[in-house]
Design a protein that fits this description.
single chain, alpha+beta, Deoxyribonuclease I, Chain A, six-stranded mixed sheet, 14 strands, globular, Exodeoxyribonuclease III, AP_endonuclease_F1_CS, Endo/exonuclease/phosphatase, AP_endonuclease_F1_BS
Length: 266
């Protein structure tokens, strides 16, 4: 199976930049997006052959997540209650027969780290949520996790040491999460490769490759035999982020036929 995750920085905006052509070309079995920045009915996303699930933020034009999947899940959950009361549409969880798929848009700590305490509470709650799921069956979680974990994951680690997404607290929280028997897929398959997934729109950062790796696929360690590769698709444009990919064996695929492409999306 192929899984894709992409922070599109506004689904309505990226639809005008060839999103559907990219979506079709990637042909993922499960396609997760973050920062949809929309509410129901504000855009038509025509994806024949996929079930669609959206989690909208209460605040208009803000946050939001979505999942498009060829396989119908056993169950879908929105948010991470009771671990955190989230009205920002940040998490969708799909339960499949052999694993949970969790799509997440982690809160940014903001300018001058004004939201760092909120972010710390989120990190603690999200970790507890994933650990609870992992006790039931293995987990694959993905999304814009808003942290560059190690110095290799950011172009300018010294000057960004106290910036949102690269504070000691956020990095330590991510280490704690991985220590709960989870693996960062890209760093597992490419331990020394320097590749970024987000670039500021300012200062021609993308053309200079002055970026951060803050978009991830992570997974329960016991899934390792079923995982084959992880990639960062840096050539795909349309957002300040690029998509990231996780490839698995067909052993993880549900024992069902994908949704009929002639059917209307769910």
């Amino acid at each position: 199976m192929k899984l894709i995750s992409w922070n599109v920085n506004g689904l309505r905006a990226v639809l005008k930049k060839g999103f559907l052509a990219t979506f079709t070309a990637l042909d993922a079995d499960i396609f997760c997006i973050q920062e949809t920045k929309m509410h129901a009915g504000q855009a038509e996303v025509n994806t024949p052959g996929y079930h669609q699930y959206f989690n909208y933020a209460e605040r208009k034009g803000y946050s939001g997540t979505a999942v498009f999947t060829k396989y119908e899940p056993l169950h879908v959950t929105y948010g991470i209650a009771p671990f955190f009361d989230d009205d920002e549409g940040r998490v969708i969880t799909l339960e499949f027969p052999k694993f949970y798929l969790v799509n997440c848009y982690t809160p940014n700590s903001g300018g001058e780290l004004k939201r760092l305490d909120f972010r710390g509470g989120w990190d603690e709650a999200f970790r507890a949520y994933l650990v609870a799921l992992d006790k039931k069956k293995p987990v694959i979680f993905c999304g814009d996790l808003n942290v560059a974990h190690e110095e290799i994951d950011i172009k300018n680690p010294t000057s960004n040491h106290h910036s949102a997404g690269f504070t000691d607290q956020e990095r330590a929280d991510f280490t704690m999460l991985l220590n709960e028997n989870f693996i960062d897929s890209f760093r597992h398959f490419h331990p020394t490769q320097v590749t970024y997934s987000w670039w500021s729109y300012r200062f021609a950062a993308r053309s200079r490759n002055a970026g951060w790796r803050i978009d991830y696929f992570c997974f329960s360690k016991r899934l390792l035999p079923q995982l084959t590769d992880a990639q960062i698709l840096t050539t795909i444009l349309g957002s300040d982020h690029c998509p990231v990919e996780l490839d698995t064996t067909n052993e993880l695929a549900p024992d069902q036929d994908p949704v009929n492409k002639e059917e209307s999306p769910a």
